[in-house]
What we know:
Largest interface: A-B, 57 and 54 residues
Number of helices of chain A: 0
Oligomer: heterodimer
Shape of chain A: globular
Radius of gyration of chain B: 19 Å
Order of helices and strands of chain A: EEEEEEEEEEEE
Helix content of chain B: 10-25%
CATH class of chain A: Mainly Beta
Structural class of chain B: alpha+beta
Radius of gyration of chain A: 16 Å
Largest sheet of chain A: 5 strands, mixed
Number of domains of chain B: 2
Amino acid sequence: MLVQPETKGTRIRIEGRVVDGDGAPVPDALVEIWQANAAGRYNHPLDEGPSPLDPFFLGFGRSGTEDDGRYWFETVKPGAVRFDKNRLQAPHISVTVFARGMLNHVATRLYFPDDPETEHDPILHLVPEERRKTLIASREEAGGAVTYRFDVVLRGALETAFFQAASAPA
Amino acid sequence: MSVTTIGEIVRGDREIFPPYLYEAYQSTRRRAPSLPLVEVPLTISELTGPGPAISAITSEDADLTRNAGTGGEAIGQRIIVVGRVVDENGSPLPNTLLEIWQANAAGRYLHKRDQWPAPLDPHFLGMGRCLTDREGQYRFLTIRPGAYPWRNHPNAWRPAHIHFSIFGPSTLSRLVTQMYFPGDPLHELDPIMNSIPTDAARKRLIAAYDHGVTEPEWALGFRWDIVVRGDFATPFESNGNR
């Protein structure tokens, strides 16, 4: 739960399952997310704006998985953040997964299927085209509440694209 | 020279970090990524991270011998674990959140998935956290954890260890690792420790007994320093990517 009643922005739910190379649920994973607020500002000293901070939004969430591999977060849709001087990145959420049997954690991003900027995102374009869909959540709406479903597949043909950070800034 | 396969691609330095896939650690066979990692440049999403914000709001809880809140004290050999958290340039990381978790003195975790026949300790949760000080130093008071069996292979036992989670200044410094105790004969039998590629890197996971930290009539002292990937704030700013 990343939101409080005072938090600014559009409420969304992120929900998904962590599954292993056999398609079996991973019941002992820890999922962490990190995101900008609704205005596109990270709660971090390196992000000096000009978009405003939201005192009611930290941008960090942590969820253990259930027996069926499921995790969830209640948050707000992040705003776009900068890529370089002239370009923005599409709204996205950084996702990290830790688990027994994972000697290093894995890092990836969740993108929004209904955001027009997603297909232009410079980072998403570094992912081989046939694997990009693994980073784009699916949208579900029920009773006015929007859920983005994002499964993390640790291994196999449908494996989620995971990132390795280059050693220098963009 | 060893050949690097896709399964051995690692997050960071191949001399230090284990591969995702390490056959002798059976669970990695189903959980290690098999496709190449996508190398991405560092944008503001990677150069930031939750560390500073959550370090500002998370309360400290560094005494695991008392933090179960029962009023009683955990059973076991009392130990003090201290160390410094620094970046790869050796600069201390002040005010950064460390979380630890560990088995009790009998080698059992307080967790529904741990059901081996060792006793639970009602006065021990096995979790703690603290913030580093201005010099990057941390300090925990806890009990020495026991070794415990696991089902990775016949007669498999994990050497005594404490899990550490560090946030640091950015997503790059995020680290989850394990601290071991010196002189433990189980080290060389442990596939998790052996997944670390070099002897020098494995030794970095073993704390040193420190008699200067030991307190008379009270607790044994151990020292364990942690190096995390750096704070890229300076090159980030000089690149003008603002």
